[in-house]
Each structure stands twice: as C-alpha cells, then as structure tokens.
Input
Amino acid sequence: MTIYQNLIAGEWIGSDATKNINPSDTNEVVGLYADGSAEDTKNAIAAAKAAFPAWSRSGIWERHVILKKAGDEIMARKDELGALLAREEGKTLPEAIGETIRASQIFEFFAGEVLRLAGETIPSVRPNIGVEITRDPLGVIGIITPWNFPIAIPAWKIAPALCYGNTIVFKPAELVPACSWAIVDILHRAGLPKGVLNLVMGKGSVVGQAMLDSPDVAGITFTGSTGTGKRVAAASLEHNRKFQLEMGGKNPMVVLDDADLNVAVEAAANSGFFSTGQRCTASSRLIVTEGIHDKFVAALTAKLETLIVDNAMKSGTHIGPVVDEKQLKTDTDYIEIGKKEGAKLAFGGELLKRDTPGFYLQPTLFTEATNQMRISREEIFGPVVSVIRVKDYEEALATANDTPFGLSSGIATTSLKHATHFKRNAEAGMVMVNLPTAGVDFHVPFGGRKGSSYGPREQGSYAAEFYTSVKTSYTLA
Ligand code: ADP
Output
C-alpha cells in the first residue's frame, strides 16, 4: 500500500506509517499515513521559518491565485473528497460532502479577502506627522486540528494563515489524516513555494508537543480537547507566543412552552445527534419548560425512532458510527454514569450491530436529568443528550448559562421578547434562535467564551485578528 507522506520543505518524506481505519467498517484501511517524528517537526518549523520572509512579502495576486485554485479543486472533487471524509471519520456521505463544499467556500472567501487587505491612514494629534495602521503576518503558525471536521477545520485555519502572509506547520488529528493530506497536496500543486505549508502527520504527544516546545513558532491555533488546550496555553505563555484555542462545549438548547413543536424537535434532533453528536456546537442539554416538556419528549423520542444508524457510506443513513473505540467507551461510560446519577434513559443507550463491523451506538436520550449531574456538566462528545425540566424562561436561561462552557446556545420560542432577551443574555459566543446550535456560516466569526475558547475569533474577516499583528507607524511629513 502507498504511504501518504509528510510534506517538509517542499519534499514528500517519511517511511513510518500508521493505518487510517474506517469506523463504519473496521476491516477497511483507508490508507497508510506517515507517522512523523520530533525531528521531522523541527525540520518543518525550520523550513517554514526560512520560507517566511519571501512569503510574507509575496504579492496578493499570487496568494489569491493559489487560494482560488485550491477552492476550485476542492469543489470539483467534492464527491470524491466527501467519500474519503465519510470513510475516515464516519459522518454520513451527505454531511461529508457538505463539509467538503464548506472547505472549498472557505478557500474562496480568503481568496477574495486577500485582495481586500488594507490599512488605515489617520492624522496624528501632532502637526506634520502621519499615522498608518497596518497588519503584519505573525511568522510561523502551528496548526493543530481535531478529528471531527477533517477538512473544514484545516481549511479554516490554513486559508487565513496563508492569506495574511504566514507560513505553516500543520499537524492533523491522528484519526483523520486523509483529508488533511489531500488539502496539502492540492495547495502544493497549486503553486505554494516550498516550505510555506508543511504537513507533519503523527502523534500529538510527539509532533504536537514538538510544535509547542519550539521558540520559532510564532502562533498556535488549536481545536481539540480542554486538556490539550491547556497544554497549548501553558507552553505558549512560556514562549511568549500568540495562541488561539477552540475546546469543549456543553451547549444548551432551551425549549419554551410557546415553541413551534416541529421546529424545536427538528433543531434538537439535528443539534444533538447528527454527525453522531461529535460537534463542539452539538446540543447536549435540552432545557425544556414544564408546559411543553412531555409533548416535546414524546415527539423527540418518536423522531429518534426514525433515525437510521448505519455505515456512513450507505444511502439513507442518518447517523454514522462513533469515530473510534476510545470515544465509544467514553460515550458508554457516560451512559452508565447517567443511569447511576438517576437520570431516566428515555431512548437508546445500546450498541448496534450492522453488516459491517463498526462503532455503532443508538442515539441516547436521558430525561429527568438535573443540571448538576456529570452528564449535564461534562462534554461527552457523542450522541448522548439530556433533557432538563425547568419551570419557566427565567429558570431556563439561568440553567443554560450555568456551565463552565460557552460556545453555542439555542432557544426555540415564538416569543420575540424571549428570543431578544436570550440573544442578549446567553453567555455564549454564538446564539441560535429556532435553529440547531450546530451549523454555522463560513464568512462570520466563530468562537465561544468561558471554558470553550480563548483568543480572537476564527473565520470571516475576524480571522485577521489572530493571524496578524497590528503595527502603528508614524512618519514626519
Ligand atoms: P481528542 O481527545 O478529541 O482527540 P485532543 O486534544 O487529544 O482531542 O486532540 C486534538 C489535537 O491535539 C490532535 O491533533 C492531537 O494529536 C493534538 N495533541 C494531543 N496531545 C498533544 C500535545 N501534547 N501537544 C500538542 N498537540 C497535541
């Protein structure tokens, strides 16, 4: 089998490899992908550092052409890359194609953004002096990504890093190297000068750690677990480096008595269970007021009955497998914890057997949960959702905000008053009214507050905040 290698200083290298396994069919090896070393990482950082002076001064048209070519190729290959994504991560084929289209759109967005780079010229408060405010690229950016969005998250970090003139060392998650390899291959062929984008696939504790330990990495953008995020933060403070973290969530969706039941059920089913609940914006707490509680639980349970859990590649599958055995164990451990804590298992909770061996788990709904239970406080990252019954809107809002996290927060209501109040008072980076908590646009800011995120927002024009450093220049006229 071919080994998909690492790209370091414009050369494909590496002979040690690990297997990329399909979670829908564990007999299938999606490919062999290089397992990089600390030495590879050091070489990649040195290559990115050497490439920085020229790339940071490259013309905006050169950058535009490369970003545009990448966006166009990803779109042209959406079905093939979507299938690769579904096979390595386990989300359904339509979801995976949708994510691939998203990655293309992100490259197209930054291909446009690079042509709009601008600064400000303003008068000084002192006579005969001019002031300019411009943005400089940071230097070498370390990109560390998780497994749950194998093509979109790499795209939304790589595209702005290149757009603003940075060079990159990119380390994808161990479980999903295939889409990352494909993006890097596309950008390499699109004409990026050698060393501008380096790919080092491998273990977090080896490759990731070598990035954290390097004084030559000027910025790290990280999406992943809270534990690793804290390591990124500590190491980055040590090296005086800029960092940006997207970590966990325990996103609430409030359902009020006056909600449109269909809208609420569709949003809850989508937010809680689609993509196997493996989205940082998934709703894992449904906070439901008394008057609609029983009707809502009955309708949501009826909806869950209709959802097909099966091989991600099969047409008709609504929910693919859990990503791997370790995550499946986490999910089933939390299901046991929920039962022990006294929540009522209203639906699911069982492992499923399908034609192909995979990590299949029923969508799982707990009712009669409290917000103090571990299943309501800790991120599970699987298709496991709890319903918390509350008296009224005020209690719902307080419960929604009573969490260490703050990524996305949703409400289902037909009341303008409550929707408006909720938008103002939800302690989250993103608020959704009558929509799933997951599912965001690519041209507007993405990010959270409290324990979910740290540093500037990602995506859209707001991405400039992380990938550049502001410079104020004064000139005597
Ligand atoms: P998850 O548990 O969801 O896989 P992680 O935070 O472990 O989340 O993984 C997110 C990314 O962080 C992955 O690319 C992983 O390899 C990387 N990573 C894990 N440990 C470290 C580390 N010590 N230093 C840097 N990166 C790491």
User: Anything to note?
Assistant: The domain at 251-433 is CATH 3.40.309.10 (Aldehyde Dehydrogenase; Chain A, domain 2). Residues 136 and 422 are 38 Å apart (CA to CA).
